[in-house]
Amino acid sequence: MASLVATAVKMAGGNDRFDDTITDRVNHVTTTAMLVVMATLVTTTNFVGNPIECFVPKELSKTHVQYFNTLCWINGMYNVSFDTEYIPSARRNGGRKATILYYPWIPLILLGMALMYSLPCLVWRSFQAKSGFDVSNFVDYGFKVSSPKIKNDVRDTLLDHMTLQFERYLSHSNKSQSLTSFSSDDRNDYSYSRQSKWTISFKHLFTKTCFKYIGHKRLNYFSALKILVKFLYVVNSIVLIFLLDVVLGVSFHNYGTDIIKSLFAWNFSKTFRGVEDVRRTKQYWKLNELDRQLNHHQEIRFPKVTMCDVKVRWLAVVNTYSVQCALPNNLFNEKIFLILWFWMVFVAALNIASLIRWVLKISVGKDRYNYVKNLLLLSGLISHKSKPDQKSKQHFDIDATSNISKASDLSDMNANSSSSSNNIYDKRTATTSNTASASISNAKRPLTRLVNNNPSSSIEDNTSFISTILTNQQLNERMLLLKFVKEHLGTDGVLLLHILDQATNTIVAMEMVEKLWINFRERYETILQQQEDITHQKYLKQQRVHRV
């Protein structure tokens, strides 16, 4: 028994894993520990006292008493209310059928429920282990970073390691790879090699059909898995309530509601009993009848006194004895399952609310954008002016590069008046529109070169050109943030940040987003600088050709 209690305490501690949400831990930690403790209590009462005491005829010996107790414990019993005048005959209709079969199996039923509440967690951890990203290890590092006793140099090292681990997972996406150092030829070769690997294996066909739009490459593996696990928690908590109807053989799903009705009916009837003038009113008798019926329903579920038929062979004669048996453990079972009913209903409602909440968090792009934006605002890397306009909120799924291309084209219209310069600059704009502008410093570099290499332009034209880019820089930063949330982080990245935030604190999640955002912008600045250098060389070469 001590080992079972120790196991329950260990399970209540959550096994030091916080790679899921609070609602998940309520299911597979709190509820499981509660069920194990209840199973321990019921098992203890079975071994300490007598779980069944049968009232046998006086002419039978003590050996027969023990035999009757054991046989009724094994074969089951049936319930006959004391209000019933006649007991059904044991010889008609095939005899009396035992309906109370759950009594010796209550501990196993409770342990089976504990296992059922742990199954969604096992699904989450087993599929997570095959994802290539250890969420538990990631959260453990987050706990170490959030510790106030950690040194600054160790803290920075852990944050860098967490960022590297995060970036490695994000780099598995095709979209993330297209944002880095892949050229168009490399992407074509990569996609061709992927398309050429068709096999007839069941795993490949299953992946290409059922999970065609779900996986690591689309950065929604953890998101789909989280929604699946949340759905399993909801189904599990609801199915278990109705499954107990079958296991116990009684109507368990409305057990709590009947108890509540019984309490209200008892209070009303008690009030009327204290008033002599209305003792015999119709309302009093109706309430008393309701009270009696509800008590009858409670006795049907967990009766304290039952009947049992035992056959005893005396030489060639078989005698059937119908004896009364007291079930003292049902006094505990009634309270245990009443507590379980209220708890299971609460957990089911909690799971439904959690499922709706996480579906909205994962599927709604505006919520993902606002969450990351708020973390960056907290870090001070972006300003409040980076808030997207209403059109950007409504069309979150539109590719941000098209908007950046329009902003660059607007800049090109004010840059040069000559047709040759416009053609050259349009080529540069078409190239940079695929990667976007990351900061205002990147927007200034080509402007300085164009002004220095085009002395024929007036000061007013150059000033107008620069001011146009400066006003569009804010739009570029918004679009870059949209691209960062949608394509670089994806739904999985935002989900993992939510898990890290809930497990540790908001500061750790903010610092993680800060490092990811800096790396993302540096990558864009490097790519943009390389393309600007190539475009500038082409521009100078074209200018020399025109001069000659």
TrEMBL record:
Stated membrane topology is: Multi-pass membrane protein
Naturally occurring in which organism (per UniProt): Helobdella robusta
Record gene name: 20212761
Q: Which UniProt keywords apply?
A: Cell membrane, Ion channel, Ion transport, Membrane, Transmembrane, Transmembrane helix, Transport
Family according to the record: Belongs to the pannexin family.
Q: Where is this region: Disordered?
A: 409-430
User: Which Pfam families does the record cross-reference, listed alphabetically?
Assistant: Innexin
What is this protein for, i.e. what is its function? Structural component of the gap junctions.
Q: Does the keyword Cell membrane apply?
A: yes
* Entry annotated with the keyword Cell membrane: yes
Q: Which residues cross the membrane?
A: 102-124, 227-252, 336-360
Q: What is this protein called?
A: Innexin
